[in-house]
Amino acid sequence: MSAIGVPLGVLVFSKTTGFRHDSIPAGISAFQRLANQSQSGEATLPRPFTVTATEDASVFTDAGLSKFGVIVLLQTSGDFLTEAQLEALKVFVHAGGGVVAVHCASTGMPSHPWYGRMIGAVFTDHPEPQHGMVTIEDPGHGIIRGTLGKGKGNWHNLEELAEPGSGRANARWECFDEWYNYARNPRSVGGIHVLYSVDETTYKGGKHGQDHPIAWCQEFEGGRSFYTALGHFDQAYSDEAFLGQLLNAIAWTSCQLD
């Protein structure tokens, strides 16, 4: 990984061999803006970062990935890596590399269980896009800190719950997005730390009942990973709350935040 004081290299990778989201260009532009803000000081981070955006999977070699501290899997889908390229990703993670995975990334590499474990869930299906209510489960986590109440989404009941030490806040975020269902509940996967979940009573088509995580992070085989199921539409990539979480996720997965 890069030395302290040197900008962190972030690879934004968006190759698809399955469904391709129209919001990929908006996502790339958003990460480039965040990088510029980190370098100008507009975004307060322990360390600035640079972005390299590509869909050329030949970068997935040990030497190619050694230039980066974090890989953003932006809407990747299908078997977008060869076996050798997936092995390079494993080496990267085992060496302490960070992974930030967005929305459709949970559909990627469907025949490789290791990839699903790294993401934390495997996509199965989703209902039509609709409004749903997101509950913030860990407002004090570094990825969430400073993002509550911001952005274009509708925020409700931002006061903390009365129960001391609950670790939760009664913060609910109304969003319009695709609400992904998974092969198994991510909370059942060892090591997953859920950051927010969606209330299935606020939309139609959920399949996980009262507990439906949609964003989480984990320490994984020497590295760190973060995943959010939000981000289907272009509008997400101009939303201050969502972008703040992606920014913090880069810092957290590169071990700059606790």
From TrEMBL:
Taxonomic placement: Eukaryota, Fungi, Dikarya, Ascomycota, Pezizomycotina
UniProt protein name: Class I glutamine amidotransferase-like protein
Keywords linked to the UniProt accession: Glutamine amidotransferase, Transferase
Domain ThuA-like: 10-146, 170-253
Molecular function (Gene Ontology), one example: transferase activity
Keyword DNA damage: no
Record keyword ATP-binding present: no
Domain of life: Eukaryota
Species name: Coniochaeta ligniaria NRRL 30616
Any one Pfam family match given in the protein's UniProt record, by short name: ThuA
